[in-house]
Amino acid sequence: MKMRIALTLSTLLAAGPLAAQEVLNVYNWSDYIAEDTIEKFEAETGIQVNYDVYDSNEVLEAKMLAGNSGYDVVVPTSDFLQRQIAAGAYQPLDKSKLPNLENMDPQLMERAAAYDAGNEHAVIYMWGTTGIGYNAGMVEERLGADAPTDSWALVFDPEVAARLSDCGITVLNAPTEVIPAAMAYAGLDPTSTDPADLEKGAEVVEGVREYIRYFHSSQYITDLANGDVCVSVGWSGDVFQAQARAVEAENGVDIAYTIPSEGALVWFDMMAIPVDAPNPDAAHRFINFVMDPQITADITNYVWYANANAASMELVDEEITSDPGIFPTAEVREKLWTAPVYDSRTDRVVTRLWTRVATGQ
Amino acid sequence: MSHVAGSPRMSWRRWLVVAIPMLWLGVFFLLPFIEVARISLADPALARPPYTAIWADGRFTGDLENFLFLLSDSLYVNAYLSSIRFAFVSTVLALLIGYPMAYAIARAREPWRTVLLFLVILPFWTSFLLRVYALVGLMNPTGPINQLLLWLGLIGEPLVMRQTDFAVYVGIVYTYLPFMILPLYAVLSKLDDALLEASADLGAHPAVTFLTVTLPLSLPGVVAGAMLVFIPSIGEFVIPALLGGPDTLMIGQVLWNEFFSARDWTVASAVAVAMLLLIVLPILWLQKMMEPAR
């Protein structure tokens, strides 16, 4: 602690005369970067980084739409990105400043171009799926060896959920991801924007609501790892982080991640530069830096999310590249869907349904 | 004081004394409120910021549509009533717990009095958010409270305390208790011992003395404490978000959903304006209830 205070003091003192120190403000998801990425960037460029985190697209979006956020690099998810581009929140990338773009996987970038025509505004940071994380031991104890761990039934079938409720089911507080998953379970097209379909999806969630402990988008990482809950609708890498924490803690908790057979949402988190970024030049340098194969491989090795950097693959741990939960097999990839962008009317329908689901009102 | 009120210097000072809080209110309350009221009259739009202007071509284009929308759906009224219930029950609990504590501190001898007061204020040295997270940890199924109860054999399996209305009450009462204790302490510590002695000398039972002397004299502290707990509790967002269950319905969360999930800043602003206006009602009622006793 003393050491840290001394360090802070010396940084403050050092910062004094160098008032013109270049600063970069990055706003990224929580638990979403390697421990040394920022350090390395600072060492290489001499730019000082302020690194802030959020745990929901909604919070980021409110800041982007309000404007003057002060951030230079932000990482919205693809469908949110598209709407924010339409609202004029981002500036086009200057690709001459991003030579590392050649490292990116052209196929994945093309899928992302569905949200950002020509990849004009954003580059894929990481990508993943929205599936189910579960405590293998606790689930088997309650449902036996033939538990439906490869299906959304694990959460959305009332009979199954009832037997799991005592060990704790949690669901992301992300209506645009959970209601479509419930629609997929009910055999509907998860990308439908028909209010009747969305209503059916909401009814599926309502059918198991009494067994759901909470709707939250980051708390479940710790709770899964500690064995405080046993089944979570969650984001792939977050579940793997819970798994890693449990292994580290040697608490006997065995966490697994499943992409249900009915399919799951695949999403891309995209690095973009707000239109009013104070330092777009440093922002380009940061984005280019992250696209360095070694840097992006380090991040994937740490956060257990897939990246879209073809050149980094050989540097990513075999344990990760061979995990079908992170890099799904071709067969599973067929069943993944990308989120449709809702218009404001559909947004209101989904939000209202979600409030009804969550609060019973 | 009144004999100098006419002098110009004094009135200038008086004016300053009034002007500073007015300026404060104007900058930190009135201006933001006008801004929110303005947004509540606009329509949502896909733009930055995400709503339309209420003045276009020199014409007023705002409307009350958002407020009518609040009435069209029972959610908003229910959330409002439910918030009042949470705030009211929490205030009563805080009063029942805080009054004896304030009384004991006021009656304590030095140096204990200073030490006890210090202990009431001490939690403020830690971030409010961290303290709520600490409650989350304490109430975990595998947390220390459950561990202790299991070990004592009082329960067979862990109690679900987190994500319940119970946890929200614990969170609100715990967080706002000092705001109840401090004004009560301020009043009780000034209580004239001679009055209590007189009451005892005249043969009143201590309980009678409390009800007829101490309690009425401390009512201003009760009202101040109740306001300080009740008002922030109604709009509380963090505590129900972290400790509440899926069905904990409070206006703060409804507002959050409108603002963030529906990205409808205009309805969110209408909720905020309506809540502010409606909050005045229970407070007037509370004040009226206390009035005859004053």
From TrEMBL, chain A:
Pfam families: SBP_bac_8 (PF13416). It comes from the Bacteria. Keywords: Periplasm, Signal, Transport. Gene3D superfamilies: Periplasmic binding protein-like II. It is found in: Periplasm. One of its GO terms (biological process) is polyamine transport. Coiled coil: none annotated. InterPro entries: SBP, Sperm_putr-bd. One of its GO terms (molecular function) is polyamine binding. The keyword Iron does not apply. Residues 1-20 form the signal peptide. One of its GO terms (cellular component) is periplasmic space. PANTHER family: NORSPERMIDINE SENSOR, SPERMIDINE/PUTRESCINE-BINDING PERIPLASMIC PROTEIN. Required for the activity of the bacterial periplasmic transport system of putrescine. Belongs to the bacterial solute-binding protein PotD/PotF family. This is Putrescine-binding periplasmic protein.
From TrEMBL, chain B:
It is a multi-pass membrane protein. SUPFAM superfamilies: MetI-like. The keyword Membrane applies. It comes from the Bacteria. The keyword Transport applies. Its main location: membrane. Keywords: Cell membrane, Membrane, Transmembrane, Transmembrane helix, Transport. The chain crosses the membrane at residues 12-34, 79-103, 115-136, 167-188, 208-230, 268-286. GO terms for biological process: transmembrane transport. Pfam families: BPD_transp_1. One of its GO terms (cellular component) is plasma membrane. Coiled coil: none annotated. Residues 80-286 form the ABC transmembrane type-1 domain. It is found in: Cell membrane. InterPro entries: MetI-like, MetI-like_sf. Belongs to the binding-protein-dependent transport system permease family. CysTW subfamily. PANTHER family: INNER MEMBRANE ABC TRANSPORTER PERMEASE PROTEIN YDCU-RELATED-RELATED, PUTRESCINE TRANSPORT SYSTEM PERMEASE PROTEIN POTH. This is ABC transporter permease subunit.
